[in-house]
Amino acid sequence: MVSATFPVENMSTHPTPIRILGTNATASIAEVLATHMNAKQLLLVCDDTTWEAAGAHVESFLNSQCNIRVQSLGSSVRPSLALAQEIAASAAGADALLAVGSGTINDLTKYAAALADKPYAVVATAATMNGYTAANASLEHDGHKQSMPARPPVFVLGDTATLSAAPKRLMRAGLGDTLCRTTVEADMLLSHHLFGTPYPRELFDVLRRHETALLAGSMTERYDEALFIASLFEALLDAGDAMTAFGSSAPASQGEHMIAHTLELKYGSELHHLMHGELIAITALTMSQFQHRVLLSAPTLRSMPYSLEDFGRLFGKSHAEALANAYAKKFITPEQADEINAKMPAIWPEISQVLAAIMLPTNTLERALIHSGVTTKPDQAGIDLERYRFATSYAHLTRDRFTFLDLAAMGVKRIH
Ligand SMILES: [Zn+2]
Questions:
Q1: Rg (CA), the chain
Q2: What is the CATH number of the domain that holds 318?
């Protein structure tokens, strides 16, 4: 197991990363670095694109202050564990690492810094995903993505001019990974009311802060793009901070991410053309439709035992044990199901009212995504519909989080 090479730690013990934001934030990088990292030898990690977008600019501001070694990873970088290990090895002579990039570069550098036990910071080049401030890194190993424990950056620098110049597709993906707040919160709140699992209301209050501006900006022809990008970027940073504060990805990843992960687990090599947030935009819409449908119904829980062989048959033998163990943590016995079902007529009207208050209407979510040019249907994104149906039907078996996917599997209604 890879995780054994790096001990799992409680993410909530990490300090919140410092945010350096603004229209000309890059110009302050020398001062920021001197104040917060004091690195004399710096390893700057980028790829060809992010070097052009910001790396060269950053280096020019820093080269009188410290020795910078640039490690450019070329033109088509995969976030592989092996590459992160290589970067960690080449950071041997450095005091700190500086990632210049977005998802892949940030994940690689974050994990390399953790392996090398050195601080790192990131200069963001796109508002495209919420992993900038998160403690964990998402890397490929054994053919699929895994979340590896690492540490958040010391600071995140987001220059609005750089973020606005990034390809619009990256921003669209960021919007998908942000607006899924509605389905994430509904899943966590459902589980909280049925089973008493934690529900971090104050973190979600923060995550909803930028939503009005994002929805309004998404649905208007004429809007202030710099303001929209700045709101989106802050919303993404908030989500990363929320994950670190909560100690897991739960406040940013529930049923919609489980569908996406199931697709990646089963058909990952066919999905390389899609960015994470593009996939989440699609799966969040599926979850939203289903959640609203269930709210109007009278769900009944039932115990659903699955054998190790079932997991092997559905997901492959190499994943069976880990998935079965995760599922066992939320397994509901027939007695527990009976107990909750007996209470359901009394508690469900209140639960559905509380949930409805924090959920976006599906058509609000859909219109915001469509108006921003985000693909909202699996077949339009090149995902085979049979495969998508498989993922929605069995995604509940892939994590210990109880979500609306479990209600779907219990027979409330087939969700796609
Ligand atoms: Zn995500």
A1: 21
A2: 1.20.1090.10
Cα of 73 from ligand 1 centre, angstroms: 24
Same domain, 135 and 202: no
Distance CA 102, CA 105 (A): 6
Choose one of 166, 183, 202: the last residue of a domain.
166
Dist. CA 348 → ligand 1 center (Å): 29
Q: Is 181 found in the same domain as 117?
A: no
In the reported structure, the alpha carbon of residue 259 is separated from the centroid of ligand 1 by a whole-number distance in angstroms of: 11
Reduced to 3 states (helix: H, G, I; strand: E, B; else coil), residue 71 is strand
> 140 and 61 share a domain?
yes
Tell me how far the alpha carbon of residue 189 lies from the centroid of ligand 1, in angstroms.
Answer: 18
How much distance in Å is there from the Cα of 43 to the middle of ligand 1? 27
CA of 290 to the centre of ligand 1 (A): 19
d(CA 249, ligand 1 centre) in Å: 9
> Is residue 30 located within the same domain as residue 116?
yes
Residues 323 and 280 in one domain: yes
Tell me: do 143 and 12 sit in the same domain: yes
**Ligand 1 mean position to 177 CA, how many Å?**
5
The residue written with tokens 């790829």 in the block is: 47
What's the order of all strands across the beta sheet hosting 41-46? 18-22, 155-159, 120-124, 96-101, 41-46, 67-72
159 CA distance to ligand 1 centroid (A)? 22
243 part of a folded domain: no
Q: How many whole angstroms from 276 Cα to the centroid of ligand 1?
A: 7
Residue 229 C-alpha to ligand 1 middle, in angstroms?
Answer: 18
Residues written for the chain: 416
Gap between the Cα atoms of 214 and 387, Å rounded: 31
Q: What is the pTM of this model?
A: 0.90
Q: Which domain covers residue 307, as residue numbers?
A: 172-222+248-409
Q: What is the pLDDT along the chain (416 residues), one digit of tens a residue?
A: 333 333 344 444 788 999 999 999 999 999 999 999 989 999 999 999 999 999 999 999 998 899 999 999 999 899 999 999 999 999 999 999 999 999 999 999 999 999 999 999 999 999 999 999 999 998 998 777 788 999 999 999 999 999 999 999 999 999 999 999 999 999 999 999 999 999 999 999 999 999 998 998 776 666 678 889 999 999 999 999 999 999 999 999 999 999 999 999 899 888 889 999 999 999 999 999 999 999 998 899 999 999 999 999 999 999 999 999 999 999 999 999 999 999 999 999 999 999 999 999 999 999 999 999 999 999 999 999 999 999 999 999 999 999 999 999 997 544 44
Please give the sequence-ordered ranges of beta strands (E in DSSP) within 47-201, or none if there are none: 67-72, 96-101, 120-124, 136-141, 144-149, 155-159
CA of 280 to the centre of ligand 1 (A): 7
